[in-house]
Model the fold of this input.
Amino acid sequence: MSKALSVDLRERVVATVASGASCRAAASRFGVSASSAIRWVALAREGGSVAPGPLGGTAGRRAFEAHAALILQLVDQRRAVVAAGHAAARHGRRLRAEAEVRLN
Done:
């Protein structure tokens, strides 16, 4: 997993741009990507802080939680189709495709 570059390095890149260098020149001088330098300068202009944001993974959980009710409903419907199919099979019948679609 990658680590965020230090706040000190970010501040030095921003200070170099503030003293007149271009973002690309400052990035080249400090060995970082031009896109990082551009992003840090924009962060400094907008909010004053170039500190890194949190790394890693809660976005997936938030995305799941936003749709949890729908996901659980679909899982329950799938279970109903499977259970109906098993019940039909126990009695020697097959569940018709129309019934499966209707249960979905």
Remarks:
- The radius of gyration is 28 Å.
- The chain is about 70% helix and 0% strand.
- The mean pLDDT is 82.
